[in-house]
Design goal:
- The protein is α+β, with helices and mostly antiparallel strands.
- The chain is built from 4 helices and 6 strands.
- A hairpin with a 3-residue loop joins strand 2 and strand 3.
- The two termini are 33 Å apart.
Length: 161
Amino acid sequence: MSEFTHFNEQGRAKMVDISDKETTVRTASARSSITVSKDVYDQIQQGTNKKGDVFGVSQIAGIMGAKKTSDIIPMCHPLSLNGVDIQFEWEISEGKSYVIIIIAEVKVKGNTGVEMEALTAASTAALTIYDMCKSIDKDMTIGPTFVLKKTGGKSGDYERT
């Protein structure tokens, strides 16, 4: 089982030792989305959601999600993140489709990457939007969610094409 880095000699899960990896600045950005109804769109745009500022609360939730990634993803290392930013933009198609695009950017100076933190931030923000708007529209659809870009580390840079 030596070819699998997250298994020990007994074939059981282990957290990889990253102590010998070089400390560098590493970044990652991830994208998620949530498709909502016109009623949800109107409520967010007008700031009339009964639970509060949907984007403001979702932004904070996404940042918290990034910080807590190692608590919910078993093999992730706890990291002291240097920065997390969440941005939202609307993608509206002929007044029939209302999609919130969520971009999460995470930065660390450390010895492992932050792709999982960026994915968790984007996902947490999308889940929070769902939670805040589910009384209006239970048909909201989350996703897809994916890594857009990563920099730094042994495996080098990556950008989704």
